[in-house]
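Dear colleague,

Following up on Tuesday's group meeting, I ran the structure prediction for the two-component complex that the binding team flagged. I've pasted the input sequences exactly as they went in, so you can double-check that nothing got truncated or mislabelled along the way. The structure tokens for the whole assembly follow below. Feel free to forward this to whoever is handling the docking comparison.

Inputs:
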Amino acid sequence: MSFWKRLTGGLSRSASKLGEGLAKIGMRGADPKTLQEVEDLLISSDIGVETATRIVAALNDGRLGERYEENDFKALIASEVEKVLSKVEQPLDISSHKPFVVLAVGVNGSGKTTTLGKLAAKFHAEGKKVTLGAADTFRAAAIEQLKLWASRTNSSIIAKAQGSDPAGVAFDAMTKAREEDADVLLIDTAGRLQNKEALMGELEKIVRVIKKIDDSAPHAVLLVLDATVGQNALSQVEAFKQTAGVTGLVVTKLDGTAKGGILVAISARHGLPVHFIGVGESVDDLETFSAKDFSRALVGLDESA
Amino acid sequence: MFENLTGRLGGVLDRLRGRGALTERDVTEAMREVRQALLEADVSLEVARAFVEKVTARAVGAEVIRSVTPGQMVAKIVHDELVAVLGSDAKPIDLQATPPVAILMVGLQGSGKTTSTGKIAKRLKERAKKKVLMASLDTRRPAAQEQLAVLGKQVSVDTLPIVEGENAVAITKRALNEARRGGYDVVMLDSAGRVTVDEELMQEAADVAALAKPHEILLVADALTGQDAVNTARAFDAKLAVTGIVLTRVDGDGRGGAALSMRAVTGKPIKLIGTGEKLDALEDFDPSRIASRILGMGDVVGLVEKAAENLDAAKMQATAEKMRKGSFDLSDLRDQLDQMSKMGGLSGLMGMMPGVAKMKNQMANMNIDDGLLKRQKAIIDSMTPGERRNPDILKASRKRRISAGSGAKVEEINRLLKMHRQMADVMKSMRKGKGGGMLAGLGNMLGMGAPGGQMPSQEEIQKLAEKMPDAGKLPAQFPGLSNMPSKFPGLPGLGGVNPLKKK
């Protein structure tokens, strides 16, 4: 199944609310009431009040006087969304360092461990040598979960007992990855809410310890976001950026009814690169982010020809 | 949760309160802002719309325009409608059925089902003295069953042994048999996370439900969820007829809109909220208290309950006795600081107090954090017993020693001593008046006569607001805080704050 099918797989069964709504009002022509409705619809896809207002303002830029065909209208909005997203469409390039160190961070349950498992599979398939570091020493069975991914993807894994110091695991993983001459080291961390100072301090320490071995590492700090998350994601980005120096985003669980509209708000404000999106539970359900496809899926448009 | 919504709504309503008369336009304008505040707090669009329509309809009606204090009336209407959306009564987990009572946990991936299962099992075992069996039906996520087994060990609750290769329905059957055979009161079924558009998996959950006939089907949902919360809640409810919602990650800084939305569209009560990573961080959800908290009216009931739960009654009695006698020394102050940290520290306490929610941001900027309590305790810990009994003997060299021992600056020690002196003075002056321990002190502090449980009335809140420093002012114009202890003897800790020091 193509990536597009998977991304819109949910849509075929329950079309995005935004798409449905836009279809209803698409051809009426511009009046304040229509624009307010469009703004509301954008807001109800988590795009946020600020970004929604801006997109509507851009729409109102003299172009909306005429009546639109449904799909043209959606395309118009998709292109406005795409303008915001195109600058964050950046693939993750791991060729600059060896081992290239990736640290996954995020709140609880956003999908860090699964994302790293999928990444391990992807890099393994590309013929890269992968090492995993199980620095989520808090959640019950998180280490076992990552171990299973390691055996599935033929990667080596550094793990200690549950409850041990995560920074220590990161240190050992760094050492081991160098010894093994791995191409990429993927370090998992425990989920933490960004307003917990002590836990954020722990994360800061993990980064500090990694730097002891390689000052340029971690080369990528991926903030893993759940597609269902609302405006709180903005606060997550800020906090994790400050503490762990987030370099890019991964959006997971896009196979559900949530279409990750918050990504538009985040891109408008922070402009952080979006590397991957997760669209399902199986190993190959991790795809490179495409601004165009994402925008069109968000407004409920079919695949671009 | 809810802080931001509190701030926004509070600001809008404050402006209304200040007015003598309200026109329809004033109300419409304010409601537009309320709507935006709700949307920014992730309240779903349809719920926000319906909410604002209802409030507007009531607010432009005769009851407001003719009232003496129209702004207050609007605030009251917003509060009432919030309570109406959230539901008025707390609804705990219902176990009134023939044992083994089955509880099925459902939800999206990563919403916190397994952790919540462990927390609820612990609670049922410890508080309701139930014999609980837990079974994980998650055969998809790697190590999910192991996760529940580990949690089971941590909370000393039995888990169904794992059999490789079994499907969810087979595990359910085995769990029910085992629960009957083993004489368990409750059997908790932790299902796999699923997206609602996955019909196959939704059907599997329905099959499990048909087999287990659970008395409770709890939808576990993340408080940080955005606009999708309503879709998720509706879809699960339509397929499985959920009986209640467990809201997780309420301790995050999300604005809690998901709670409002899900309750509003499904009509199903929020039964429990997860408030932390530890396995005892689970609380009952009381809608009217939450609504008050959202509007910055404080949660006095919660405060008193928390006090009752955490404070050592005997110690309190002893302290109260000492207060009465006027022999309140530094060891007693240390006990009080200890009890305050037990009650969730300054920020926890402040969040529950009426009118204070708005101050929280300023407080955060002013370095009033819970570390302060720790530092003050460290200072007292670095003193000799003699010094604690008789702080007057503390002169420069002793203070230097304490400073070295506690890592605190001499100024901080002086501030603590000054605070203690002020507190002792107040207590002496209270000697003649009515007695009462710390709880009574808390009650007084909150502008209430008795340590009773009722919510303060509008007038009491108003009075309190006058006592409290104005939230809108800059920290530099905020002198009330540094001598707060003299006004509010029940609240040590704040005295050590330098209002000019910013983070």
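Residues 410-432 of chain B form the longest helix (23 residues).

Cheers,
M.
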